[in-house]
Each structure stands twice: as structure tokens, then as C-alpha cells.
Amino acid sequence: MSKILIPIFIFSTLFSADYSNIPLLKWAGPEGTRPKTYEEWIEQNPYTEFQCILDKVVYGNGRAGNVAILTEQSIAGALTNGINQLISNLQLENYTVLSYQISGGTPETLRTFLQNLYNNNNIEGALFIGNLPVTWFEIANDYNQYGYAQFPIDLFYMDLNGTWLDTMNTGNGKYDGHTGDINPEIYVGRLMTTGIGTDTVLLKNYFRKNNAYRYDTLLLQHRALVFCDDDWIPWAPQWANDVSVLYPDTMNYWHAETTRASIYRTKLNTPEAWVALFAHSWPGGHQFRYNNGNSWDTYYSYEYTNQDPPANFYNHFACSFARYTDNGYGGGRAIFNQSYGLGAVGSTKTGSMLEFYYFYYPLSQHKTLGQAFKDWFTHITSDGVTFDELCWHYGMTLLGDPWLKPTGHGLAVAEYKKTLAGNSPIKIIGNPSRAQVIFQLKIEPSSSIRLNIYDCLGKKVKKLIDKTILSQNDYEIIWHFDDDAGRQLPAGVYNVCAEIAGRKFMAKLVHLK
User: Fold this and answer.
1) Which domain of life, per UniProt (predicted)?
2) Are residues 169 and 316 in the same domain?
């Protein structure tokens, strides 16, 4: 294979890693297992004629970008409600959304379609729903020690003006080189259910969770689990520090004899917004070493489905765990759980993310998963890539809705703003205040009342009341600026959102220092 014909990237920042010192990931599947090949995939998913139907265009207010949703045509009808809800939510977030139904095509025709959307509509990102064309890349000798490797590569759809080369085995359907301007122009997220279950059932449930998250009913504590197995313990403190840029509250585990599958199962039961897992893996599971590295045990991918852990986002530093062409691949199982799971980053090959700061910092600044993923990839490719960087990173992919924000969305507040009623029956006494405020409410007989407090990012921090009042009454609630866990909230501006007998009201509160 010809090498990448671009300048070697020179590390120059505090957060850069010396790749040569970091132990490589390894395929950890049972003896005799291997990843599905391009030839096996294309036999089951042959290319057919490309067809595209514009489903709808929904316009935002211009404050956010233009985005595209591309849905496999054969399942689009069954997903209409879920996709329409997603589009409506994106419009509330100020995006203009172009929604298409896609059937057939090759990677090249799909990339050309994206190029046209980028050049003519200035899209910033896209979501692939269902089985859309998969691009493959091959390396003659992976890391100069693993031998021949081939893998799906979504960077092909992100970098729209670079040149992708097929020089090693010309015409075999796999690329092997990448030159020119190799920075990504857009981000891409995938929702692909390969071998996990009935696609429409899983996707409908995913959209249900997606909507719940945006409306703050699937939010989990802003905390991260960092679980690092033996080979990378020397790097674990720095990597945990990178995660803490997004979530300062981190639970860290990297002891050589206690990072076991049984402990991982237990820690997954603790509600946390983010899981950063570092372990040798394969699409079917994670392998954890113990007994001075002489023994190992396994957390299987199907356990994500069975356990349904209370976590919404994952960064899997795990060999081939996001290889969405393999049946039952673990990255997909993590996001297609019944109750939780919304987004994951991982690799389709023996590789992973490094330089984590450049991913977590944009997320901490309230960027979306897609924007942060693109920012990270741009950092990797901005001065060209070395062969090591290609081997580590070219399999990286984003699974899930790329417009999700791990910091939260607050659409409940936006919805209140759209439907505010006049003549509010709520009176707030002591606003602004350092210690407490009093809510006085005039309630009609048999009225349902819901009163919640949101922070400036739209995250619900306090439920004050949610009940039905049977008799006419003047109702009074005293709030001491505490959250649902009883912790004192910092000074700042908060939104009071009330719904009384079906009418919505909103006001601002100021908590003084």
C-alpha cells in the first residue's frame, strides 16, 4: 500500500501523545474468530441503483446550521413518527433539516450526494439511518506488525474534498490511500442495527429515548465512569483528566487486579451520563486481564442489552467494537438498549481515539457529539497523518444522533416559551434572593399543576410539584435554591416553568451570591 502522501504531523501541544509508547489494542475474540470481510459484506449487501427521494425540508431560524437526515427507504415509512419528532426537535434547536429517503447506491454515489448537499446547501453534518452504503479501507500491514487489515471507514463521507486512492489492489472495492485536503468538512452519525434485533423496533425505541433526553426526562447525573484495563494504566490519569473536562465528577478504576468483568458489570449499574472504557475487545465483547496478566475474563456485548445500564454515552477504547458490519456489534448494542443509550464513539478496526482532550473540550463547551467528533478528527488530520495515526484512527466512527449534546438540550424550556399563556396565576415573592423564594399560586378546583426549575442550559434541576389539586386553593411553595438531590445550587439565573390546568407559564429567577 502506498503511504499517505502528506506531511507528517508534528506533536506540539501539552495534550499530545507519543503514539509509539502506547500499547496497541488487540483483537480479543475467542480463538478462530475474525471480523467480517468486505467480500462477505458485499455478498450479503450487493450494490444496486442509487435512488433518492426528498422527504421534506424544515426551516430553522438561521441561528444554527443546515443538516441532513438520510434514511434507508425500505424502513422510512415505519419510522415516520420518530424521524418527524427528531426533525421537529432540531427545528426547535434552530437547524434547517433536509430529510431524504435513500435506496441502493455505492459509497461513491452516496459521497457525491453528500458533496452536492455540502456545496449547494452548506450542510454541517448528516445522520445515516439504516443500512446505507459502507466504504471499506485496507492496510497491507497494520501498524507494521499485524498484517493485512480491512475495515469500514466513515471518514470517507466526512472528508468531501480529499482524494481517496485505490492503488494496492486496484478495483477490489477498497481504498488504501488518502491525499490532498484530508480535513473533514462534515460530521456523520450512524444508526445501524446489524444483527442486534428488528431494525424498525430498535430504531423506534431509539427515537423515543432521543426525544425523552432532549426534554430532560432521560437525563442522568453528570458523572463519568473511567474504567481502564491493565495495559494502559500509566496513561489512565491523563485520560481521566481529559474526560473530567466534560464531567468533573468521574469514577476512576484502573487497578491491575480489580479491573475485572464482574466489577465493570457492577459499576455500569451506577447511573452515569458517560462511560469511558479501555480494554482489549472485539465486536462481541471486552476482555479484562488479571492475575498479573495471565488470566482474563469477559464482558460480552449482549450483556449491554441484558443489563440495560443507566448510561447514555460511551467512548469505547476497544478493538473493533464499533464495527457495524459485524452482527451484534457491541457499540450498537450499547446505544440500542431499551431504557438508555444514545451515542457512542469507537473504532471499526484495531484502533481507537487518542488525543481525547480535543474531543471532550468541545463537548464541555456545549457542542454536539458530531461537532466535537469533527473537531477531534480535524485536530488529527490538520497537519497530515502519520502511518501510526492512520492505523489508530481511520476506523473511528460516531454511532447515534450526531446532534445530541452531553451537556443537555433544555427543549422543555423552549417548548414553554412557545406556548406561554397570559394572566399568570403564579406570583413570586423574594426574587431576586440569596436564600429562598416563595411561589404563590391561585388554583382552580380539580386542576393539575406541574412546577419545575431549569438552569440556564435548560437542564431540569428541581421538581417542586407535580399533582392534581382537588379544591380551589391559594397554594404556597417555598424553595431554598436546592436541587432534587438536596444540594445547594450556585448563584445564577434559573427558569421557572409551570403548567396549570393545561396552560403553560414561565418566569426567571435570580439566585444572588
Assistant:
1) Bacteria
2) yes
